[in-house]
Amino acid sequence: MRYVVYFIIILIFWLLITFSLSLSNIIVGAAVALLTTLLFGKYSLESNVKIIQPQRYFWFIVYLFIFLWEVIKANFDVAYRVIHPALPIKPGIVRVPLEIKSDIARTMLANSITMTPGTITMDIVGDEIFVHWIYVQSDNPEVYAEKVSGRFEKYIKKIFE
How are strands ordered across the β-sheet holding 119-125? Predict the structure, then answer.
């Protein structure tokens, strides 16, 4: 069953990328999807039940809008810091506790933090993530944890766990 689901997802992705429903494109897409599924299907997630839950897709779309908004805000913040004559930065490495447990959710969070200008995920150790931040606004761990990961973590938890 897992292989069938991945074959269908890959084929749909192929058709969306090529944006063509010609017979030759469908045949090539099916061949690519079949080959990809056979080679990499065993490395997939353990539970396929999560893939077919529609509420996860809803939360993913909500997450995309929140992520884009945070990236836009962070871009303006970093641009302000670069243009400002005094260069107002206070860099530091912060340790943020994680509530999410699955590896894919942690990876998604780490990538989201890294793709937001002004922050870079350095490492995940146990139940903590270490982030280099361009402007550490507080010494209170709860405050900076909410600023760095809180905006993403609650939605990623709804998507992946």
Answer: 92-97, 128-133, 119-125
Q: What is the pLDDT of residues 4-16, one digit of tens each?
A: 888 988 999 899 9
Domain residue limits, the chain: 2-49, 53-160
Q: Could you give the count of Cα atoms lying within 13 Å of 92 in the half-sphere of its Cβ?
A: 12
63-72 pLDDT, tens digit per residue, is: 999 999 999 9
CA torsion 67-72-76-77 (nearest 10°) is: -10
pLDDT band at 26 (very low <50, low <70, confident <90, very high): very high
Q: Give the relative orientation of helices 2-18 and 23-40 as an angle to the nearest 10 degrees.
A: 140
Among residues 127, 104, 108, which one has the least CA distance to residue 47? 104
| Domain 53-160: which CATH number of 3.30.70, 3.30.300, 3.30.230, 3.40.50 | 3.30.70
